[in-house]
Amino acid sequence: MSEKFSPALLAARAADERVAECLRDSRSFLLEAGAGAGKTYSLVETLRYLLISQGEKLRCQNQRIACITYTNAATGVINSRIDGNQLVFTDTIHAFCWSLIKGFQSILREKIAVLPAWQEKLCEEPSIEKQRVEYDLGHRRINGELISLHHDDVLALTAALMPSEKFKSILAGKYPFILVDEYQDTSREIMNAIKENLLGRAGGPLIGFFGDHWQRIYDETCGHVNHDALTEIGKGANFRSSISIVKVLNNIRPALPQAVKDESFIGSAVVYHTNTWAGSRRTGAGGGHWKDDLPADIAHQYLCKFIEKLKTDGWDFAADKTKILMLTHNTLALEQGYASLAKALRYPDKFIKKEDEYISFFADKLEPACGAYQRGRYGEMFSLLGDAAPKLISHDKKVRLSKIMNELIALRHDGTIGQLIDHICANHFPRLPEAIMRRENEAAAQLEKPDEEVSESVKLTRQLRKISYQEMIALDQFIDGHTPFATKHSVKGDEFENVLVVLGRGWNKYNFDQYLEWEGSGSVPVDKQDVFERNRNLFYVSCSRPTTRLALLFTQKLSCMSLQTLKAWFGPDSVHSFAP
Predict the structure, then answer these.
(1) 8-state DSSP, 287
(2) What is the DSSP string of 78-126?
(3) What is the C-alpha separation between 483 and 477, in angstroms, rounded?
(4) CB contact at 8 A, 506 and 345
(5) Distance between CA atoms of 122 and 140, rounded to whole angstroms?
(6) Contact, 211 vs 39, CB < 8 A?
(7) Among 234, 304, 343, 386, which one has the highest count of C-beta atoms within 10 angstroms of its own C-beta?
(8) Dihedral over Cα of 90, 95, 101, 105: its sign
(9) Strands 230-235 and 268-273
(10) Measured between alpha carbons, how far is 40 from 422 in angstroms, rounded to an integer?
(11) Structure pTM?
């Protein structure tokens, strides 16, 4: 079908015209754009409209349009599409907030003094009357000359300053237009401050929100935004997916129906479940979030056989064609080669979100620094190591550093995590984070004690030290998306030709059988609304990634109600039992 007459294009144009009306009428708005609707396109078109209609006025009054994003990658995409126009300030929410508050040094010191997260640090330096407040690497530090802010502090301080009339006046004077990309990922604290202090304010600014609250999958974020001063606009288009997939998405989300780009592009969307397996499923012992899932080895067998089946159905499992989205962590860890790490850390967020100090150091500093060293990018290596990088003074020190790094890289392939840590400690390079040193010292002090007599922290450190560092490399590659597999967060915003979603237990915050039952009954307990939305959003994000083919494989047992829900969404002929 010619794009000129594409149903998706007609729906998109209608939504974009409503945005233009809001701009002409000086009304703040919220564009709710479902998966594949072309949200970024609408955002860029809005910027272009403002640059044409308001550019000269902005230039004369020394003002700019603020475009707030949530990743550096998104910032780069938007800047490239507007040719880096200097009338637009495009940056992350943290950079934008810091640009607003950094001139309020004395007030910042007053606010920092009462922030709960700073109370322990302030005991080290009780007087904070003259220090310069800075935000650079995102680490909390304080001394007689400097206060360095954490990323969370920047948002908290901005929210604390927002009620000030002087602050609001300066903000509106600099940025009469503020556009927020992925608005649903804004912290609750910042969004509440915007709603209470900026939306509907007589002196502006005009605010435009672009996003989709059904794609909110991060904790402590605002989700959908309601306000009397906001005009909500639904963008009912899908430029990404085939008819079969869009039909499923529309059944899941009837309140925002999407029109397809090409009515001849059929594709496929199917569901397979494992209810007929006759063996004993997991009982939830040691954590109820495993209940009713297949044992890990059986789940692995099912996945392998299911992939074989899909290949015979025409699926191409090349990494650039197909993504396997794992929403069950026992299968994921086994497939990816970090099962011991997953077992030791127990909760997925500890390693997938890098909440454990060891994982954070290895994934964010050591692994990328080793990669830079192997590519001969020594400046990049030091930059990645940050405070851990030494100052090279002599040739001898350079030779010594090369020897340390070569030994370290060798240990990455044939040593344990403990051996790697010991090598770093023995050579004093790179400098280990204080949190890891505390855990290492605590474990060393209790070396002779059996596991039953030590703390959980020491027990965990002992377990981690025994694990092959190869598992850490496998985990890091998985987190960074260098495999056919993916986590729930790593594919948000991406698209692939084919997507296989494996759904089971193991995530303590997700139970898809329960979610499907709630959807089928149309009744969600009042105290479970957050749980329901968390499961719904992840399910929707997962199902909306493919362009052509979608397949779901449930390793957890599904109730009759859940199966009925899936049949209502996918069609009764598209829901099947699967047995290897």
Answers:
(1) -
(2) HHHHTTT-TTEEEEEHHHHHHHHHTT-HHHHHHHHTT-GGGHHHHTTS-
(3) 7
(4) no
(5) 11
(6) yes
(7) 234
(8) negative
(9) unpaired
(10) 47
(11) 0.78
SS3 232: strand
The sign of the CA dihedral 268, 274, 275, 278 is positive
Partnered with residue 550 across adjacent β-strands are 269, 499
Helix 151-161 / helix 105-112 crossing angle, nearest 10 deg: 110
- Contact in structure between 64 and 179 (CB atoms under 8 Å): no
Task: Find where tokens 């499907």 sit.
Answer: 516
Cα first-last separation, the chain: 40
Query: Token pair of 331, please?
Result: 């299968």
CATH annotation of 3-89+164-238:
3.40.50.300
For the chain, domain boundaries: 3-89+164-238, 99-158, 267-346+489-577, 354-479
Cβ–Cβ < 8 Å for 55, 18: no
d(CA 123, CA 142): 10
Rounded-to-integer distance, Cα 10 and Cα 86, Å: 32
Fill in the amino acid letter for 316. Answer: D
The three-state secondary structure class of 272 is strand
Long-range contacts from 386-395, C-beta under 8 angstroms, 24+ separation: 386/137, 387/137, 387/431, 388/429, 388/430, 388/431, 388/432, 389/430, 390/429
- The 10 Å CB-count burial string (b at 16+, else e) for 248-281 is bbbebbeebebbbbeeebebbbbbbbbeebeeeb
Which residue reads 């059904």 in tokens?
214
* The total number of residues written for the chain in this structure: 580
pLDDT per residue, tens digit, the chain (580 aa), is: 444 579 999 999 999 999 999 999 999 999 999 999 999 999 999 999 999 999 999 999 999 999 999 877 788 899 999 999 999 999 999 999 999 999 999 999 999 999 998 988 888 777 888 899 999 867 788 888 899 998 899 999 999 999 999 999 999 999 999 999 999 999 999 999 999 999 999 999 999 999 999 999 777 899 999 999 999 999 999 999 999 999 999 999 999 999 999 999 999 999 999 999 999 998 875 556 778 999 888 988 999 999 999 999 999 998 789 988 877 655 555 556 777 887 888 666 677 678 889 998 998 889 989 998 998 888 888 878 875 455 556 778 888 889 999 999 999 999 999 999 999 999 988 989 888 999 999 999 998 898 888 888 899 999 999 999 998 988 887 666 544 444 444 445 578 999 999 999 876 778 999 999 999 999 999 999 999 999 999 899 999 999 999 999 999 999 999 999 999 999 999 999 999 8
**According to CATH, what is the number of the domain 267-346+489-577?**
3.40.50
| Alpha-carbon dihedral 170, 172, 177, 180, rounded to 10 degrees | 70
| CA 91 and chain centroid, separation | 17
Tell me the C-alpha distance between 580 and 298, whole Å.
10
